[in-house]
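Please fill in the sequence for the structure shown.

STRUCTURE ENCODING:
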């Protein structure tokens, strides 16, 4: 591999583009919506994700799973209030094609309402808008799950 090619690969990895490329290359793609602050619903979303991953892994097929949180569902990915943060951490380590997305709009509104900043768990990536992210993923051919 040439120096330029190595540099491009390193930069893509640094900025997460390799994850994006891997997600786009997946044979199956699904976002799962979490919009309620309900531990049972959060666990149902995680169960759905694990079941999808296990099913396609057994078939030796690739799947990209994006769990998208917004509104009260953002609590799933808050470092201070998540009832499932340990499970998210474990699943994230075990499943490289499982991604957790947190809505920046919701975070901004919660920060304003609470009068303080709060952490998002390290496994999560902030996106400008959870709803827009779901819409754009569907436009890219992702199936859509709302448990």
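FILLED IN BY: designer on duty
SEQUENCE:
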């Amino acid at each position: 591999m040439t120096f330029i090619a190595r540099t491009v690969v390193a930069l893509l990895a640094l900025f997460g583009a390799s994850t994006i490329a891997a997600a786009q290359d997946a044979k199956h793609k699904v976002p799962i919506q979490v919009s309620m602050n309900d531990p049972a619903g959060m666990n149902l979303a995680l169960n759905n994700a694990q079941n999808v991953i296990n099913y396609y892994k057994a078939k030796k097929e690739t799947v990209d799973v994006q769990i998208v949180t917004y509104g009260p569902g953002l609590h799933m990915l808050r470092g201070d209030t998540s009832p499932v943060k340990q499970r998210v951490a474990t699943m994230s380590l075990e499943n490289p094609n499982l991604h957790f997305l947190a809505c920046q709009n919701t975070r901004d509104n919660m920060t304003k309402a609470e009068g303080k900043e709060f952490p998002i768990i390290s496994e999560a990536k902030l996106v400008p808008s959870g709803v827009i992210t779901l819409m754009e993923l569907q436009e890219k051919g992702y199936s859509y799950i709302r448990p």
